TrEMBL record, chains A, B:
Cofactor: binding details: Binds 1 thiamine pyrophosphate per subunit.
Subunit architecture: Homodimer.
Domain Menaquinone biosynthesis protein MenD middle, first and last residues per copy: 236-419
Co-factor requirement: Mg(2+); Mn(2+); thiamine diphosphate
A GO BP entry: organic acid metabolic process
Keywords: Magnesium, Manganese, Menaquinone biosynthesis, Metal-binding, Thiamine pyrophosphate, Transferase
Keyword Manganese attributed: yes
Protein name: 2-succinyl-5-enolpyruvyl-6-hydroxy-3-cyclohexene-1-carboxylate synthase
Glycoprotein in keyword set: no
Residue ranges annotated for the Thiamine pyrophosphate enzyme N-terminal TPP-binding domain, each copy included: 17-129
All residue ranges annotated as the Thiamine pyrophosphate enzyme TPP-binding domain in the record: 455-569
Amino acid sequence: MTAPDRAAPNRNTLWARAAVDELAKSGVDAVCVCPGSRSTPLTVAFAAHDDIRVFSHLDERSAAFFALGRGKRTGTPTPVVSTSGTATANFHPAVIEANQARVPLLVLTADRPPELRDSGANQTIDQQKLYGDAVRHYRDLPEPAADDRKLRSLRTAVCRAVGESTGANPGPAHLNFPFRKPLEPVAVPGDVPEGFADEHPLAATGREDAFVSVHHAPAAPDDDTLNALADAIDGTDRGLIVAGPDDAAGLTRTAAVALAEATGFPLFADPLSDLRYGTHVETAPVVGGYDGLLAAGPLDGDLQAPDVVLRFGASPTSKPLRQYLRDSGARQFVVDPAGEWREATFTTSDLVVADPTKTARALAGRLEPRERTAWTDRVLALDADYWDAVDEFTPEAILEGDVVAAAAADAPDPATLFVSNSMPVRDLDRFGRPRDADITVLGNRGASGIDGITSSALGAGSATDEPLVLVTGDLAYYHDSNGLLALDRCEVDATVVLVNNDGGGIFHMLPIEAFDPPFTGQFKTPHGLDFEPTGDVYDLEFARVETLDGFRAAYRESVDAAGTQVIEVETDAAASHRERERLEEWVASDR
Amino acid sequence: MTAPDRAAPNRNTLWARAAVDELAKSGVDAVCVCPGSRSTPLTVAFAAHDDIRVFSHLDERSAAFFALGRGKRTGTPTPVVSTSGTATANFHPAVIEANQARVPLLVLTADRPPELRDSGANQTIDQQKLYGDAVRHYRDLPEPAADDRKLRSLRTAVCRAVGESTGANPGPAHLNFPFRKPLEPVAVPGDVPEGFADEHPLAATGREDAFVSVHHAPAAPDDDTLNALADAIDGTDRGLIVAGPDDAAGLTRTAAVALAEATGFPLFADPLSDLRYGTHVETAPVVGGYDGLLAAGPLDGDLQAPDVVLRFGASPTSKPLRQYLRDSGARQFVVDPAGEWREATFTTSDLVVADPTKTARALAGRLEPRERTAWTDRVLALDADYWDAVDEFTPEAILEGDVVAAAAADAPDPATLFVSNSMPVRDLDRFGRPRDADITVLGNRGASGIDGITSSALGAGSATDEPLVLVTGDLAYYHDSNGLLALDRCEVDATVVLVNNDGGGIFHMLPIEAFDPPFTGQFKTPHGLDFEPTGDVYDLEFARVETLDGFRAAYRESVDAAGTQVIEVETDAAASHRERERLEEWVASDR
């Protein structure tokens, strides 16, 4: 590790080293750096730090999504650094996604010194509160100086930002660093007084650990709340546990299983809940077919009406499930560590502001042990029937959901599986059968954009040695094609499943399909792009397949191979949508 | 033209038609639409309007820069439309550039209805004041309704936004449109009462012209100010007119020439001032060599010290010029129609808040006619010597500035020439000799980012039938490679001069060059990208040349040809920088 106190040639170097020192001591082990001049002190300090891996990115938008994906996978923020100017605004989409998906993210923007603001100076914009309310915390840092109090303030501010970006409501934090020239580590006599580090060891060197170690203490519900929950559960055989997209501060698999066993209720596991895949699905009552089941029509009799629903995570991806919950009339407990509402059907009756895992464990301990309820058995039987029906269905064209399902079914164990918006995550929800394999499924479901998908996936992949699979559509692939540069520059390997239906396939599911024009020109937007040459620009092999069998063969070969392969499956969105509807009818007729 | 009042099937359709109707009546003739569902009412209304050309874009970042470039070229805003969510944040870089470069831009974001805000609803983010202080005007529009007062409010708001985005301080304006389903033009019985249009003609149909025609009245300086200016000018032979990067509300060529003739002063014309090229350079005292002259060392004697400087436009691109003005001790009048400071050396002594063209004309009329001063003749002689020296200099490696200079020298007449940051605009400043040809030079010098360059150029190109030339670097080309999609989708042809020095060549000009690592890995960032395959992805021909002569031949062929050609010139940034320095010495020795 570099000794941040020794021989800092000028105040900027001293300052940036102190900031990076605190980041490393706070657990940061990687950074995404975008080249630029004003950020030179930070870049130099990061590059010199032995414990921080530097990922160099040339497009700030992709850089921020890469950092987001990595933070999502690790639970620790990966800072992203840029120079001043519009570079900083390119981070904005990822900042919003991090905010809404509760992903730790630290944005470190360099800025011109205060006297140059609003002056017409080059690359000088108003970076104050640039991301508005989308960040948990913002600080405009003071001007660097070899000053005891200022340096302690800086160290405190960095720890504060890390603390704000993690904890019960993880998200983005933004630190703005004004720097005056010289930005490089050139000697500036007198800038850092001789002996400064010896006279001010705490300011110059910090502590052995972080200057301020932030100890988050996730709260369990109090007794009254636990009793209310237990009473509601004890009073009925008809209950559900619904796990929506998971947060960094979410529900662990073991706690979820313990709760399902204690309540005897089925566990509806969103593909992004981290509960649809894992060894627990062998024994726990994990239901993955709810989306297809509910889309096929109302369930029979009292299956329509659970009495109590325990909800974790964000709002489920499945629209049929959201509608089912809305119409169920059940008492709905939402467990949310941040105390926020993420439930736009407005059916919550009780908000439990507490740590999900602690809540599940405490509740499981509080309940009288009981058998799996008859209601649960009926739900599980329906679910099994659903998967049988899906297996027996023979589509007449490539059903995009089959591609997504195969990518999950044939994924290595363990693996990280990143699914894009708009269709892959929905298709995985409907067609991804729970599997006894340690697959970490991730997606950007905070704001559900199609921007930054590739970068987010590669960032997640950079965090582990697990194989990485990305399932994406052609629009998302195009949108973040710059993100492919990270394959080489950040040394990430992936299998990219590119479902290419030449445009916005999801619009076939919306009423606008009936209005053409403007449907084709403005919504479907076929682009006719040939993505094969991206294999010549970036560090990847490109293969195109035309059948599901061809896909499965190429996919299995890719996940076993080194390097990155993009497997493009050309589909017809309209035909796939028709097959999706035909499968819904098939499921309904089978019931 | 569509009749916006007739048979609107529902309130959203009625509402969006009214908005688009007002835009068209306010002079908007094109729109950039990004596909999405929530924005369906706007998209459908734009697509149905006979007088508005729809440019469909798949990457919102590129879309906004395309709209920026078009607005920069035309002076009229080209609205950019997106769905809700992170799509809107992708506009942010272009919004900031539009703000700082004073380019008319209208951002129309669709939003979820108010009851879904902060609820966890899909693709719902906080879009309130999303761009902070970077917009001239923001309105969160009310919920659509077939309501007289609301529709009049909408029409007024649209006209207001157009008015705010144009005028003395052009820039971006943001309208946020909440829409509730159904978004498509499906019949909703009772939503628009029968006979509504007949009973409320003004609300439903608007006026024949814009609902509110905004009449900007650019102000000339008052007599006292004119007298002060005239006195300062009359009192000296040593004066300069400095024209920085131009605004939509800037100084016209004829007014600039009139002022130069009346004062007898030389006109230092920034490449982005719109004054370096044009028929006027044959007779007017246009100086283009100041950057190279001043970089080569101090001028002789009193050439160092003009008594009075008249400044127009933004801060000059040339750093040597900015330093020269700072150190000159001159009285400096800055004429700025918006009354803002864009002068970070803080040497302004008088700010004239008035229309530049009117000021120049009024001042020219007020002054006693006089001959060109001896001082001016000496400046012009120095300038002529400079260009001779540049002609005589024989570089030992490709000098990037020679490529940029050739692109300007051999550009068709007329043409639009878009120059990227960071080096092309600086190289044009130094090496672009004034030329008697109607070349409109544009660049993004508001915040001087390298983002969105290609899209800005293609947007500018879409506005005229003139040939379009873009001179860009490899980082900018990579950064906005998505913008190349507009070649086909928006039917723009261009000649793209790609100066590829494999990374951030500008960093060779900064002290960080001496610190390696991290110079190569984190600043220079060679990427080794082979851009030739972009020719197979997008609608363009790709050619690579290795010499200046090869470039000139390929370039001349391209500007005469249909379609788009990318001409890549591989250069060595370090070598080019050395040649640049050698040329500075050459110029100095020649003096």
